[in-house]
Amino acid sequence: MAFSLEFLLPFPYNKPMPFKKINLNSRSLRHLLASLGLLIGLIYLGFFAYRYGDALSNFFNVEKQVVSFGRQFSTANIFNFCVLILLTALGSAVPFLSNAVLAVFNGVVFGPWLGLVMNLLANSLGNFLSLKILSKINITDREKSFSDKLEVLQKIDNPYLAISLGYMVPIFPTLLVNYLVTESKLPLKKWL
Fold first, then answer.
1. Percent with pLDDT over 90 in the chain
2. What integer pLDDT is reported at residue 18 of this predicted model?
3. CA angle, residues 187, 179, 83, in degrees to nearest 5
4. Which strand (E) or helix (H) includes residue 159?
5. Cβ 56 vs Cβ 172: under 8 Å
6. How far is CA 125 from CA 18, 59, 87, 95, 144, in A?
7. Which of 99, 102, 154, 178 is the most exposed place for a label (fewest CB within 10 A)?
8. Phi/psi at 134 (nearest 5 deg)?
9. Residue 180: which of 163, 157, 158, 161 has the closest Cα?
10. Which long-range contacts (CB under 8 A, 24 or more apart) does 177-183 make?
11. CB neighbours of 177 closer than 8 A, spacing ≥ 6?
12. 146: left (phi over 0), alpha (psi -120 to 50) or beta
């Protein structure tokens, strides 16, 4: 006689639970992504404060702090490599947060070729993160400027050209181009 505990499970264990999309308007989406970016930034600052607590004890000695902070990030090491990639990716994923200063800083610290690789990797990672978030959200109420710019890109016959132009031309926010990628159901391999 076999004994089974399947009756204790709240749902059949062999069937995945369906995922429902969240409906948000564009303003709520911007607030959500900006809040997420702020949270990640605060986590990083907390980690930084934990790791360099002794340097922060001299907080009111501004000259000493500026020299210490500059010395920490001006050396090319693996920790700075990872942190700068994550911060640059965050700058490309969060709307209205520019990563241009970090992109230049990557080139200054790590040299032009490794800085270029870092920037490409970070922008791809940040846009991938943005695409994953946007794939779980429906924008129900779009602002007129958002809809107008989206229509301009949708009128281009070749979707690859539309996406490339969207990423290159600064009048199109990256959020809008990433939304176009998710709406056109473009495979991530083709997007990359």
1. 2
2. 64
3. 85
4. helix 159-168
5. no
6. 27, 34, 11, 15, 29
7. 154
8. -65, -25
9. 163
10. 177/153, 178/127, 178/130, 178/131, 178/134, 179/134, 179/139, 179/150, 180/150, 180/153, 180/154, 181/131, 182/131, 182/134, 182/135
11. 153, 163, 166, 167
12. alpha
Q: Give dist(CA 102, CA 108) in Å, integer.
A: 10
**Which residues on adjacent β-strands are paired with residue 185?**
none
- Are 111 and 146 in contact, with CB atoms under 8 Å apart? no
Listed in sequence order, the DSSP H helices in 52-99 are 53-56, 62-73, 78-93
| One-character DSSP codes across 12-39 | -TTSPPP-PPEEE-HHHHHHHHHHHHHH
- The tokens describing 158, both together, are 């070749």
Tens of pLDDT along 9-58?
555 555 555 666 667 677 777 788 888 888 888 888 888 778 777 766 66
* Partner residues linked to 4 by β-bridges: none
Whether 65 contacts 143, CB under 8 Å: no
- The CA–CA distances, whole Å, from 168 to 18, 29, 116, 150, 163 equal 37, 23, 16, 15, 9
Output the CA–CA distances (angstroms, integers) from residue 73 to 80, 86, 111, in the order listed: 6, 14, 14
Element (H, E) at 172: none
Length of the chain: 192
Rounded to an integer, what distance in angstroms lies between the CA atom of residue 177 and that of residue 171? 11
